[in-house]
UniProtKB/TrEMBL annotation:
Protein name, per record: Selenocysteine lyase/Cysteine desulfurase
GO molecular function: lyase activity
Taxonomy, superkingdom: Bacteria
Domain Aminotransferase class V: 27-405
Keywords, ordered alphabetically: Lyase, Pyridoxal phosphate
InterPro entries, per the entry: Aminotrans_V_dom (IPR000192), PyrdxlP-dep_Trfase (IPR015424), PyrdxlP-dep_Trfase_major (IPR015421), PyrdxlP-dep_Trfase_small (IPR015422)
C-alpha cells in the first residue's frame, strides 16, 4: 500500500476527497460511477472555458489552442502506449463506442460480428444494432457466471476464419473483473488475422497499465470522467488500418479524419493533466527516468494499493470482519478472484440492496445499487438476483475508509 505521507499527498490533488458539497463528510466508494476529479483538471477546465477563440485561425490564441491539442494527443500516446494510430475526442465513451462499431461493421469485409455476454450494453447494443443493419450474424460468447469472466478459450471456440469484427470488454463495471485482453486478441488473430477488434476500456482506465501496442487491436475507448478528468467527452484511439476504411466525413475534406467540427480544447488539455498526474505518481514510487516507464510504475502501484484495499474489504482489517465473513453475504465473481480491480459487488440474502445502500449513505458512505436492468441484467439475471451493492474503490481511498465501511456493515 501507499505510505501514509504519500497517500496524503495523493488525496490533496483531488477535489472533494473527504466531503460532498451537498452531503458533507463522506467516504467515496462510487468510483466506478465516476472517479474523483483532479484539482488541476478543475483549473484547466475553467481556463479554457473562458477562451473565445477557435482553433485553425491565424492568431496567437488559435495557435495556442492547436498546440494544446497537439500536446494532449502526444500525452495520450504515451499514456496508452500507442506508437501509431490516432486519438480524438467525442461526446462520451458510449457515443464513441457506437461510432467506432458503426464504422467497423459497415466498413469491414463480409463476415459475422462477435462479442461477449459480459460486456457493457454500449458495445453489445452497438454491435447488435449495426450487425442487423449490415445483414451480419451476431455471435455472443458466454461469460462464466461464477467468475464474471470471459476467457480466450471461450472466444476461440466461436471465432471462424471469416469473423469480421470482434468486441472485447477490458474490465467489467459490475463485477470489477479484468479480462485477459492480450490472450483474447491472440485467440482471435489465430483464427481470423484480419478481424477488426474493438475494446471497451472505460472501467479499466483508472487502474492504469494500458498498453495498446501489445494488444494488436483496432479501437480502444475510455471515458475520462472515470479516470480523474471531467464529464462531457470521451477519448478514442483507432489503428491506422481502421482509419483507411471508408469513413463518414465531409465531402472533399481530408481522408482518414475522425474529428467532426470544432473540438473542445479544454477536453484535450484536461487529459494532459491526467497524464501529468500519472507521471508524478510514477516518480514517487519508482526511479524511472522515462515518462512511459513512470506511468507504468504508477499503474502498478495503483493496482497494488487497490488490491490491498480489496483484500481488507473481503477478509477484514483489525478486529472488523470482512464481507466474506458476514452472514448471508454473497460476493459477485467469487471471493478470491485475482482478476478483480478495485471493485466488490455483493448482495445479502433477504435484504434488498437498495436498503443497504441507503443505510450506508445515511452514515456517510457512498456506494451504489446495480439492478438487473439493461445495464447489469446480463450479470445479475444468470445469478438470479434482482440487484447488488457495488463498492468501487480507487487508489486515493484509504484503509481507514474501508474500516469505516466494514464497521457500518457489521452494525447492520
Amino acid at each position: 500500500m501507499f505510505s501514509d505521507p504519500l497517500l496524503t499527498d495523493i488525496r490533496a490533488r483531488f477535489a472533494h476527497v473527504e466531503s460532498c458539497p451537498f452531503q458533507g463528510p463522506r467516504v467515496f466508494f462510487e468510483n466506478a460511477g465516476g472517479a474523483l476529479t483532479l484539482n488541476s483538471v478543475v483549473e484547466t477546465s475553467t481556463k479554457f472555458a473562458a477562451i473565445p477563440d477557435n482553433q485553425g485561425r491565424d492568431n496567437p490564441a488559435a495557435h495556442a489552442l492547436v498546440a494544446a491539442i497537439d500536446t494532449a494527443k502526444s500525452d495520450m500516446a504515451t499514456f496508452f502506449g500507442a506508437g501509431s494510430g490516432q486519438f480524438f475526442v467525442g461526446e462520451s465513451g458510449t457515443e464513441l463506442t457506437f461510432r467506432l462499431l458503426r464504422a467497423m461493421i459497415l466498413g469491414a469485409r463480409p463476415g459475422p460480428v462477435i462479442g461477449a455476454t459480459v460486456e457493457h450494453p454500449a458495445s453489445r447494443s452497438a454491435a447488435r444494432k449495426w450487425a442487423h443493419v449490415a445483414g451480419r450474424d451476431y455471435i455472443a460468447v458466454a461469460h462464466d457466471d461464477a467468475t464474471g469472466l470471459v476467457t480466450a478459450e471461450a472466444y476461440a471456440a466461436q471465432i471462424t476464419a471469416d469473423t469480421a469484427v470482434a468486441t472485447i470488454l477490458h474490465t467489467s463495471p459490475v463485477t470489477g473483473m479484468a479480462m485477459d485482453l492480450p490472450a483474447i486478441t491472440r485467440a482471435i488473430r489465430a483464427k481470423s488475422p484480419d478481424c477488426l477488434i474493438f475494446v471497451d476500456g472505460i472501467q479499466h482506465a483508472s487502474h492504469g497499465r494500458i498498453d495498446i501496442d501489445s494488444y494488436d487491436i483496432d479501437g480502444y475507448v475510455i471515458s475520462p470522467y472515470k479516470v480523474f478528468s471531467r464529464h462531457g467527452y470521451g477519448i478514442a484511439w483507432v489503428s491506422d488500418r481502421f482509419s483507411r476504411l471508408r469513413l463518414e466525413g465531409l465531402q472533399g475534406g481530408p481522408e482518414e479524419n475522425w474529428e467532426f467540427g470544432t473540438r473542445d480544447t479544454g477536453a484535450y488539455a484536461t487529459f494532459s493533466d491526467v497524464v501529468g498526474y500519472f507521471d508524478w505518481l510514477g516518480a514517487q514510487v519508482s526511479d524511472a527516468s522515462d515518462r512511459r516507464a513512470r506511468i507504468l510504475a504508477a499503474g502498478q502501484a495503483i493496482h497494488d494499493h487497490e488490491q490491498a484495499l480489496t483484500r481488507a474489504m473481503l477478509h477484514g482489517t483489525g478486529n472488523l470482519p470482512g464481507l466474506a465473513e458476514l452472514p448471508g453475504v454473497e460476493i459477485v465473481g467469487g471471493v478470491d478472484n485475482p482478476a478483480r480491480e478495485g471493485l466488490v459487488s455483493f448482495w445479502r440474502e433477504g435484504v434488498p440492496s437498495e436498503e443497504i445502500v441507503a443505510a450506508l449513505n445515511a452514515q456517510g458512505i457512498r456506494t451504489h445499487t446495480r439492478k438487473a436492468d439493461h445495464y447489469s441484467g446480463n450479470i445479475l439475471d444468470p445469478l438470479g438476483q434482482p440487484s447488488c451493492i457495488r463498492v468501487s474503490m480507487c487508489h486515493y481511498n484509504s484503509l481507514a475508509e474501508v474500516a469505516a465501511f466494514l464497521a457500518a456493515m457489521k452494525d447492520m
